[in-house]
Every structure is written in structure tokens, then in C-alpha cells.
Amino acid sequence: MLTKFDPTNLKACLSLLEDITSNANQIQDSVLEAILTRNAHTEYLRGFLNGQVDKQSFKNNLPIVTYEDYHSYIDRIANGEPFDLICDRPIIVLLASEKNCTSLLRNFTWVGQTQSMYCQLLCGLVERGNVSRLGAPFASTFLKVIKFLENHWSELCSNIRTGRVSDWITDANCVSGIGKFLEAPNPELASLIEQECSKTSWEAIVRRLWPNAKCIEAVVTGSMAQYIPMMEFYCGGLPLISTFYVSSECSVGLNLDPLSKPCDVSYTTIPSMAYFEFFEIKKYHQETGHDPVVVDLVDVKVGHDYEPVITTFSGLYRYRLGDVLRVTGFYNNAPQFRFVGRQKVVLSIDMDKTYEEDLLKAVANAKLLLEPHELMLIDFTSRVDSSSFPGHYVLYWELGCKVKDVKVEPDPEVMEECCFAVEECLDSVYRNGRRNDKNIGPLEIKVVRSGAFDELMSFFVSRGSSVSQFKTPRSLTNEEALKILEATVVSKFVSRKVPSWELHELHSSR
């Protein structure tokens, strides 16, 4: 598909980028032709195309699908059937994400991940002067590593002081790997790390422990944006860089301005990665009963929201990613997108439909009320409580304090204001339903104990999710998962005021 080039040659890379983005439409047609030609004999494509591999036959005959439409093929391959059910080449690995968690990744146990995380931190601390950047797949993952460090720094220092790793590290690869770095006792380094970690506040702890680090690489867009204040607190102003937009299904785009602020990050689509189609999302007018109108990559419009539909070399055809992307511009002829969130209604009681994007904005606004009290929102999720009439929204919040070893005791008045602040940010349909509590009851925030969301993650990991890929679901319906959170609730608060309606409508119409 691409001309040969030296990936270490910056000039060659930039020249290639200019070429594929300038000729985006031609590249996309070539990609689709190559995918269909290579995979025409597969069981999946034969069933729709009958050997016809032209673009129009593809668009006319192949349905747009989701994981539910596809999982039977994935299960068959996982159970040993030939890869040519969907693809012309051997499938080496099947990745599970939070969108489609099969039982394929159960071997990635939390125990193994814990040993690996511990040893990576130990190596990083021993080599602290040589660390130029730190990172994790997602901001939430990075913060879990910081929490892990907070719980284990004393033991890590002991290992550095003695030159010997803890006995509970039994994984052969971990033991072998750490032996290359932990070669001798280093009491001076251990004391320096202890001095930093034992301070009252962990503000800028990353910069203090790794003084030569230049940036933090992690996804901080979309649903990860809520973690930015905590990332900034711990990282001490180091640039937060979201380099790629990559999903389990395929790579999509690059951030060509890596030092841009997280709120300004846009990803430039790389037309050679897959064949991309998009259908426009009109949030409150989706249920039309008709198939969505699909447009090609070069035909999207600036300012509009779309869900990507991908066709890949590895056997996915017109597959919905479920993401919401907002077009911010074009680089040559390749569109640039801002990642908005997931395309799904997360909460609904009556006529209201609260989408992930709406919920994230509302919570981001409400948690500002915590800052004057030295509190941080560590993580959250939500659900609808329909056990009483009228039903109401429930948010589970895990709170943390910016000062170490201080008990988290949120002020009831502040928390009630947080409840109200969330409601004030939701749309007019929700706020109208709240009038006189006729259709929707007052929103409730349940504060959970420290570590509750780690327990939630462990539950999903035990069901096959990958630690590195796990993202806290913004809405929970799994009854077992809800029981885990309910068992950790330490206090409850409800909104004492009814959100405005007419006045808010007047402002929003300007």
C-alpha cells in the first residue's frame, strides 16, 4: 500500500505523511480494493459479495455491524476454526476491550500484572536519572500506577537499600529482568526516594522522583479528560501528551501537535490504516428506524459529530467503533477529529436521555466545588435507581485528599451542592422531568471508600478484561458490579434544590 521508506528518517516520514493526507481519497479507494481483493474468498465476504469486490457492491450489500453481529465469528476462531472465516491471513491474537470482553484474556491475571507493575516501578526508580518520559495507555491507568506507588514506596525503597527484590516477586521474567538493574545495595538512592515520598503532599511527585522527565504520554481525551486535574497535581506541570488515537480494532490517527493542551487535541486520520466511513450523529434525533447515511472519509464536515465505521485488513467489515468524533478541520485532505466520548445513552428514566458526553461535562462542573476543600474526585460511575417512584440518577464517587493521611470527610452542604451542580448541567428534558419530582427524583451521590474502584476493576479483570485496557464504565448495569460498589458506600447525599428550567432555556437559546 505504501512506498518503502526509512522510519528513522524524519524527512522521509514527513514526506509520506504529506503524500497520504494529500491523496486521502485515492488512498482510501486503494485500501478498500486491497482489503476486498485479499479477503474475497472468506466465508463472511462470500455471503454478501458473491465475488464482487468493487466499491459500490461493497456499499450496497455489506451491512453496518456491531460486535453483537460479529461475535459468533470471533468465538469460532477462538475455538479453533480456520482464520479464513473472516481474514486471508493467520490471526495471531484476539484483543478484548471494555466494549467486547470475551473470556480470551483471562490469562492476564491481576497477580501477574501486580508483579510486573512493581518491577517496572522498581526499575524506573533505580534508573530515575535516565527516565526522559513516562506513560501508560490511559490517564486512568497512569493514576492507578501512582496509587500503586503510594501503597508500595516503602517496600520499593527497602529493595533498593538492600539490593534485593521482595520474595513475593516470583514470576521468572520479572526476577530475571529486575536482576539486570538491581545489582547492588544503594542506600543513598533509597533515602532520597523516601524523603520525597514521605512528604505531607504528593503534589508533583512524578517530577520530584524523575527530575529529567520531559512529558507524560497517556490518552487524556474523551472520557479520560476527567482525570486531567489529578494528572496535573501528581505530575507537577509536565506536558500531557496524547500521541495516538488507537482502538482495539485498528489505529486511526496521530496527534500532529503533541504539545497542544489536552482540551485542544485533535487527531489527524491516517488514510492508509483502514477504510473509514462515518455516519453523522444527531444526538436527539437518532431513532428514525432507518439505516444511517454513511459518508466517506473526505466528505465529513467541520463541526459535525460522527461515529466511525471501519473496514480493516484483519477481518472487520463496516464495523461500528462506537466512538463519537467531532471534526475540527483538515490536514491537507485528511480530516482531523476530536475524541468526544462513547456513542451511547448512559442514563434514562423517562423521556430523558443522558449521553456519556453530557454526564462527563456535568461531573466535571460539579467537582470544581471540591477544590477549595483540598478534595479530588478519584473516579466515578453511575446508574439509574428505579426501585422507588419516581426513579433517579445515582452517582458513585470515590474521593481523595490532596494532603496525605488525612481522612476524607466531605462537607454535606458541599456534596449537596455537587448533586445540584450536576443536575443544572443536564439537558432541559431532564430538568423539566425534575420539576415537582413528577417524573425524575433528586439526583443522589454515594461516596464510596478509598479503593472501591480498584475492587471494581479487579472484578472486571477476573471476567477477562485487560488491566492495561480497562476503563471505568460511566454507567453500570451489571448487578454483581453494583453490589461491589454498594458494599463500599460510606455516605449518601441528594440534591435539595430543583434545577432551573425556563431561565436556563433562555440562556442556552442565545
Strand tally: 18
Strand content: 15-25%
Q: From the helix content, strand content and strand pairing, which structural class follows?
A: alpha+beta
The tally of helices reads: 17
Helix share, percent:
25-40%
Distance between the termini: 49 Å
What are the segments in which pLDDT stays under 50 over at least 5 consecutive residues?
103-110, 284-288, 503-510
Give the mean pLDDT: 88
Radius of gyration: 25 Å
Major pleated sheet: 9 strands, antiparallel
Overall spatial form: globular
Q: What does the model show?
A:
The protein is of the alpha+beta class and 510 residues long. Among the domains are: 110-235, no CATH class; 345-508, no CATH class. 36% of the residues lie in helices and 19% in strands. The protein has 17 helices and 18 strands. The strands form four sheets. Strands 4, 5, 6, 7, 8, 9, 10, 11 and 12 form a nine-stranded antiparallel beta sheet that branches. Strands 15-16-17-18 form a four-stranded mixed beta sheet. The protein is globular. The two termini are 49 Å apart.
What are the SSEs and their pairings?
Blueprint: H1 10-22, H2 24-39, H3 43-49, H4 55-61, H5 67-78, H6 110-126, E1 133-138, H7 139-162, H8 172-179, H9 187-197, H10 205-209, E2 215-219, H11 228-235, E3 240-241, E4 244-246, E5 251-254, E6 267-269, E7 275-280, E8 294-296, E9 305-311, E10 319-320, E11 323-331, E12 334-342, E13 345-347, E14 354-355, H12 356-366, E15 375-385, E16 392-401, H13 412-425, H14 428-434, E17 444-448, H15 452-462, H16 479-486, E18 489-494, H17 502-508
Parallel strand pairs: 1-2, 2-3, 16-17
Antiparallel strand pairs: 4-5, 5-6, 6-12, 7-8, 7-9, 9-10, 9-11, 11-12, 13-14, 15-16, 17-18
